[in-house]
Specification:
It comes from Sinorhizobium psoraleae. Helices cover about 30% and strands about 30% of the residues. It has 3 helices and 9 strands. The longest helix has 22 residues, at about 5-30. Strand 2 (about 45-50) and strand 3 (about 55-60) form a beta hairpin. The strands form 3 sheets. Strands 4-1-7-6 form a 4-stranded mixed beta sheet, sandwiched between helices. The chain has a 3-stranded antiparallel beta sheet with strand order 3-2-9, with no helix packed on it. By secondary structure, the chain is of the alpha+beta class. The chain has helices spanning about 5-30, 70-80, 145-155; strands at about 30-40, 45-50, 55-60, 60-65, 85, 90-95, 105-110, 115, 125-135.
């Protein structure tokens, strides 16, 4: 049924639900905490996702659930957003303050090497597209924050503390 509705109506509902969730979490919790990762396959390509409710290509990740460690949440988000599996422990890179989302949001950023994709990600209500990209062939609409994180990992930009 939901798939029969126009895409713009579905996207509008998802954006409203996402905004409601951010407001709810801001009021119900002292701080929101999420995880994101730069996930590289064996060929050195980076995995990016395009959400159905946000413009641009992003690093995979999301909010942590209650009673979930950062690594557990990361593994869950990678499975959900890309059918990705960690083959080795993720490397903690930085904890960022994400003032663009709210005054209380923080992002734990990891590097994950040699991730394995169980099967290609099929678009769904949250993820419109996903895939691996060579670092010199990123999609044109890769978000500025994603590009900054990649540059920090490459050592071509100084590490920041703001997402």
């Amino acid at each position: 049924m939901e798939q029969d509705r126009p895409a713009e109506l579905r996207n509008w509902r998802i954006r409203l639900l996402t905004r409601f969730a951010h407001v709810y979490f801001a009021l119900s919790r002292g701080m929101t905490l999420g995880v994101r990762a730069a996930c590289f396959d064996g060929e050195g390509r980076i995995f990016l996702v395009r959400h159905s409710y946000l413009p641009g290509w992003h690093l995979p990740g999301g909010g942590l659930d209650r009673h979930e460690t950062a690594v557990e949440g990361l593994a869950r988000e990678l499975r959900e957003e890309g059918n990705l599996e960690l083959t080795s422990p993720p490397l903690l890179v930085q904890v960022y303050y994400n003032r663009g989302t709210s005054k209380r949001d923080h992002v734990i950023f990891f590097r994950c090497d040699n991730v394995r994709q169980q099967q290609p990600k099929v678009p769904d209500l949250e993820i419109a597209a996903a895939g691996f990209f060579a670092l010199d062939e990123l999609p044109a609409d890769t978000t500025p924050a994603t590009r900054r994180r990649i540059a920090e990992l490459a050592g071509t930009e100084e590490q920041d503390t703001f997402w």
